[in-house]
Structures are given as C-alpha cells and as structure tokens.
Amino acid sequence: MVKYEQNSKYLKILTVTAAILGVIIYLFAVPYFGSMVAEYAPEFAYCFWPWVIFIWITAIPVGRALFLCFMLATDLGCGRAFSLRSAKSLKGIADCAVIDSALFLLGNIVYLLLGINHPSIFIFSLFICFIGLGIFIVGKTLSQLISEAHELKSENESYI
Q: Is residue 160 over pLDDT 70?
C-alpha cells in the first residue's frame, strides 16, 4: 500500500507541475510568441487574436484531462486502482484527448480555408492530432481493462 501512496504522490506532483507549465505556456508563451510573429511579419498581424483565442480554447480539454489525472492519482493512492471511478477517469482522459485532437484539426482546417493558416502548420497539426488519437486509444483500452478487472474483483469478492 505504501508503494501505491508514493506513486500517487509522484503522479500528483507531475500533474500539478504539468498544469502550472500549461498555464504558463497558454497564458504567457503563446501570446508572446504570437506577438513576435506579428512584429517580425506584420502581414500576419491580423492572425494574432484568432490564433491566440483558438489555442486558449484548446486548453479546456487539456485542463479537464489534468483534473481527471489528479483524481486518478488520488484513487491509486487510496488503493482503488481497479475501481469503476478509475476506469471512468481514464475514459474521460481519453475523451478529452480525442476532443482536443478533433478541435485542433477542425480549427486548423477552418483557418486554412480562411487563409490564416499555412499548409506547413496544417501538416504539423496532423502530427499533433495523431498523438492525441494515440492517447485516446491507449486510454480507452486501459479503461476497458480496468472495468473488466473491477468486474472480476467483484465476482471474486462475492464468492468469499
């Protein structure tokens, strides 16, 4: 049980650190680098606010996934690794990954059609969406496995 508590603590620290870094990146780094692009290439200055707002919107599923990851770490620390709540947390993280990927892809397509996106950025966004899809598949698979393990655990406890 002590090992679960220690792993839970490390996972919580990692999640909080990721959240702090995410806030720094989304609130400070994205506008800073966007303003640098607008300064060095004034022909793209009109793209600044649409892109910044779009990136901020994509932070919503990321924030929810981090919250669910923190909840999952709490469950692991309490010895509830194979609970339905853990399975739902993993499923929620997977859903956030696919929602973020779809939102990012859709936004890039719209911006490409509006002429405020470059084709090379669109191609790079496909790579990011592919990573999100991989997280979705792994999360859904682990969620299903944890649900099945919970059912087996419940059946075994009912026989005892």
A: no
